[in-house]
Amino acid sequence: MDEGGRDLKGHNSTSQTPFIVPEGDRIMNKVFIIGNLTRDPELKYTQTGNPICNVGIAINRVWKDKQGNKQESTCFIELEIYGNLTKVVADYCRKGKQVGIVGRLKQNSWIDQEQKKRSRHAIVVENLKLLGTPQSTNKQEEIPTYDPGDEAPF
């Protein structure tokens, strides 16, 4: 054990289940990101009336290379939002809005018009926090986590 109470694999000795290394069927699929929305949310409804909201997010990374030059890269990913959270996102979020996301990673697959198999990763949003606005106000609002059994938060 080290001075932090962790064993040689980095596990906390007081914990029964390791956090980093899943065992058996205990696999973790959780994503935490902060980024800016790339477009206004698109609110749609299924044939049964269930709301679905799609929007893109850009996640920026800045670092210095070995020569000390500033480097930047941006990752673009789709967000899928379901249930009561969709209306709140559609009402309060706009292109450029900075948000914090908690969700799970999902892979969507389809066959394109040229009969080629295509796929794209997306994040299914479980919770979203408004972190800022394009106008840089300091107001922060938290949108509640969606629970399929909950009533609408408004």
Structure characterization notes:
This protein is mostly beta strands. It has a single domain (31-143), classed as OB fold (Dihydrolipoamide Acetyltransferase, E2P) (Beta Barrel). 5% of the residues lie in helices and 45% in strands. It contains one helix and seven strands, in the order ββββαβββ. It has one helix spanning 85-92; strands at residues 31-37, 42-45, 51-64, 70-82, 98-111, 117-130, 141-143. The protein has a five-stranded mixed beta barrel. 14% of the residues are buried. Residues 1-13 and 135-154 have low confidence and may be disordered.
- In terms of DSSP E residues, the strand content is 35-45%
**Radius of gyration using CA atoms only:** 19 Å
Strand order of the largest sheet: 1-3-4-6-5
Query: Structural class, please?
Result: mainly beta
Question: What is the residue-averaged pLDDT?
Answer: 79
CATH class call? Mainly Beta
Specify the CATH homologous superfamily.
Nucleic acid-binding proteins
The CATH architecture can be named as: Beta Barrel
The CATH topology label is: OB fold (Dihydrolipoamide Acetyltransferase, E2P)
Characterize the largest beta sheet: strand count, sense, and whether it forms a barrel: 5 strands, mixed, barrel
Pattern of helices and strands: EEEEHEEE
The gross shape turns out to be: globular
User: How many structural units, i.e. domains?
Assistant: 1
Distance between the termini: 50 Å
Treating each run of at least 4 consecutive H or I residues as one helix, how many helices? 1
Percent helix: under 10%
Point out poorly predicted stretches: 1-13, 135-154
DSSP E strands, number: 7
